[in-house]
C-alpha cells in the first residue's frame, strides 16, 4: 500500500528531525568536553572540509565520523555553518546534493534513502507526542 505523502508536512517533519539530530550531537559533544573550543573558526572549517573530502575515497571510521560531527557541533555552538563541499570535484558531495534535491522536492519522487529518513522523522514525531502527553 502506497499512500500519498503530504509534502509540506513531510518537509516540516524532516527539518524538525534534522535540527533535533544536530542538537543531540551538540549536547553529546558538550558532554565529552568540547575539544575544539579553542580553535579558530577557519581551522574548524578547513578540518571539516578535509575530512569530508577524504570520505569520498574511504568510507570513514566511526571515530572519523564522530570527529566530523564534533566539528559541526562546535560550528553550530558558534552559530556558524559548515563549509560547502566541492560537489563538482567530489562524488560524496554530488551524492549529497542529489539526495538533498530529492529530499526537499516532491515526495512522490523519493528513493529508498529519502523514505528511510522520513520514517525516522515520523518516529521522532511519535516520540515527541508521547513526551508531551507525559
Q: What can be said about this structure in brief?
A:
The chain has 134 residues and is an all-alpha fold. The protein is 67% helix and 0% strand. The model has no long low-confidence stretch (mean pLDDT 86).
Question: What is the arithmetic mean of pLDDT?
Answer: 86
Could you give a short account of the major beta sheet?
none
Which value, in Å, is the CA radius of gyration?
17 Å
How many helical stretches?
5
First-last Cα distance? 33 Å
Can you give the helix content as a percent range?
A: 55-70%
Principal-axes shape call? globular
Give the arrangement of secondary structure elements.
Layout: H1 7-31, H2 41-54, H3 62-77, H4 91-103, H5 112-133
Your description of this structure?
There is one protein chain. By secondary structure, the chain is mainly alpha-helical. It has five helices and no strands. Helix 1 packs across helix 3 (62-77) and helix 1 crosses helix 5. The longest helix is centred in the N-terminal third of the chain and has 25 residues, at 7-31.
Name the features:
134 residues, mainly alpha, 5 helices, 67% helix
